[in-house]
Amino acid sequence: MHECGSDLTGRTAVVTGASRGIGSAIAQGFLRAGADVVTLQRADPGPELEEAASAADRRLTHHSVDLTNEASIREVAVDVLAAHPVDILVNNAGTQIRNEAVDFALDDLDATMNINLRAVFQLCQVFGASMVERGRGKIINLASMLSFQGGYRTSAYAASKGAVVQLTKALCNEWAGHGVNVNAVAPGYLSTEMTEALRADTARSQEISARIPAGRWGTPEDLVGPVVFLASNAADYIHGAVIPVDGGWLAR
Predict the structure, then answer these.
(1) What pTM value is reported for the model?
(2) Cβ(144)–Cβ(187) under 8 Å?
(3) Domain boundaries, position 131
């Protein structure tokens, strides 16, 4: 019988893009749940993460990585795995470039796909291989509302996030039998740096707000509970799921 709850004591979680926004909130949630956290991104963790680690008496380490560079990801993964086993991987880092499809530069398409899909795939490979070998592990990928919908002026981002969902399902099929859970959460419209331009578009922002049954845009903290749950023993029989955290947006 597995214990239920969100206790992650004794586990090590890797979170990409944890210097701010959703990634920082998730990393703080892991620390509060008892996990040690390794952050992967260019920037150092912010003071909020340092304070959370100190308050929880957990270990917080950071590795600088270029998620557009295959060798950089491989080298960091080797260093992290040499230090300790990784029990949880959260692929949070992402980028979004907005433009009309007819004007969308192919270089911008490549940049979006490299971070939002290629890096996610490689990180799943390098850390997932260790999880498969050990017979346990949790991978949580960040999908999007645009994994389900086409969006507007975000063709490359929508394509990348649709691919993240299919990748999640494909890896589930290969790894569930080895004790590795691969799932995704799909954030709704959250107040983050990535949505700043969208929120500044008064007409579009009002349209979005009117459709959200919960009556508000979400915050990064709204993602913490679902991600910690998926990383815990309580979610041991959840495989290949994509959980919307959207205030009811998709239900409308």
Answers:
(1) 0.95
(2) yes
(3) 12-244
**CA atoms of 23 and 221, how far apart (whole Å):** 10
What CATH code is carried by the domain that includes residue 66? 3.40.50.720
Question: Tokens in use for 77?
Answer: 């993964």
> What are the structure tokens assigned to 98, written together?
């907005």
- Find the radius of gyration of the CA atoms of the chain: 17
Segments in the chain forming alpha helices (H): 21-32, 47-56, 70-83, 106-113, 119-134, 155-175, 196-200, 202-211, 221-231
Amino acid at position 74, single letter: R
Half-sphere exposure of 8 (CA within 13 A, CB side): 32
| C-alpha–C-alpha distance, residues 199 and 206, integer Å | 9
User: Does residue 65 form part of some domain?
Assistant: yes
3-state secondary structure 202-233: HHHHHHHHHHCCCCCCECCHHHHHHHHHHHCH
- The torsion of the CA quartet 43, 46, 49, 54, rounded to 10 degrees, works out to 110
Is 5 contained in some domain?
A: no
Per the structure, the count of domains in the chain is 1
Indicate which residues carry an active-site annotation. Answer: 157
Q: Give pLDDT tens digits along the chain (252 positions).
A: 344 568 999 999 999 999 999 999 999 999 999 999 999 999 998 899 999 999 999 999 999 999 999 999 999 999 999 999 999 999 999 999 999 999 999 999 999 999 999 999 999 999 999 999 999 999 999 999 999 999 989 999 999 999 999 999 999 999 999 999 999 999 999 988 777 877 888 888 888 899 999 999 999 999 999 999 999 999 999 999 999 999 999 999
Q: Which amino acid is residue 153, in one-letter code?
A: R
